[in-house]
Amino acid sequence: MKTSIYKSEVKGKVRAPSSKSYTIRGLLCAALAKGKSELIHPLSSDDTEASIEVLSNIGIRIIKGKNSWQVIGGDFHKPDTDLFCSESAATLRFMTAICSLVPGKCRLVAGSSLSRRPVKPLIQALRQLGVNCSCQGEVAPVIVDGGRLNGGVTELPGNISSQFISALLFISPLADKGTIIRLTTPLESKPFVLMTLKCLEEFGIKVEFSSDLGEFEILKQTYKPAKYRVEGDWSSASYLLALGAVCGEVEVENLNPQSWQGDKIILNLLRDMGASVIINKNSVTVSKSRLNAIRADLSDCIDLLPTMAVLAAAANGVSEFLGIERARLKESNRVSALREGLESMGIKVGEEANRLTIAGAEPRGSVIDTRGDHRIAMAFSILGSVAGETVIDDAECVSKTYPEFWDILKSMGGKVKIDGK
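Now predict its structure.
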């Protein structure tokens, strides 16, 4: 599907979608709690559906209502088929760990893009806890022969993916003995790990975390069923807020200003660029402003790189983004995808291993190769609304996290044409 974006002036009030990250974390905690839990306002998207399908195939019953899901957890059985994680890295990595608790052999497989993303550090960490598991080189498919989780001490790097650490945190309370997770390199994307700890707490699990030592200590514990309310997603909201900063005025509701989500820092970044930002109790309003260049380290909010890159392209001066190396290991190599897309729109970009510079200018319309990456598609829709006639290919890829994105953009006055519509 191709979507054409034209120069637009937008104005409106929209509701941020529920958090994908919290929805998946809530599903997994509920699956580990014996009894019935309820997720209130969960997100329905490709990634969350992948988690539901895998959990259903190992014995977890999930009943969907209009605004909530009932999860009957605590009892796993051996799957009758491969566990297909689609393109959801969180599903693959979290479920790799959870399959250590499933009696029998599980084989987790992934979609084409996810099959290129690393999982080996998690496999190595699980083996240190007594789990019999393997992967194909560095990546999926993953085979886990479950039913054995000893606990003890495990070590892994903290700078490859926070999802590896979260995966270990989910299962450690159910190990035969207490567990220590020791990081061998500094923790990056720390807010995502804090989100996991917050979710575990809601389901009765306590974790001791020493940031000085880079260690997590988890005693043997039992998950308790819970009513879990999923808050709005700051990652998805970043595109709407950025749109307001360059094309009009947008108020985004369903946002928690006290959220643990790292991408909440988009508010500070927008202010630093000169955007008008007004925070209310449950919403944020951003209005069109003259933006200035920014220098920012995105190590703890790497998913904001596409949003910040297109804002920098429309700003005055040369922006510099550091801590970007892990963006090469996402649904696409986002660093090169951004550079190529921006250069096609007449923007000068400097790319280094862990640094990106972007010289703001008058962008021109172009055809954007999204590489099937939802965040690349949504980010370039913002710049297309500034530049005029811009074609976003594989536009359906937004369904990974924000299926209604194109309709929301149109509802605020964005000029959007989808294929022949």
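The mean pLDDT is 96.
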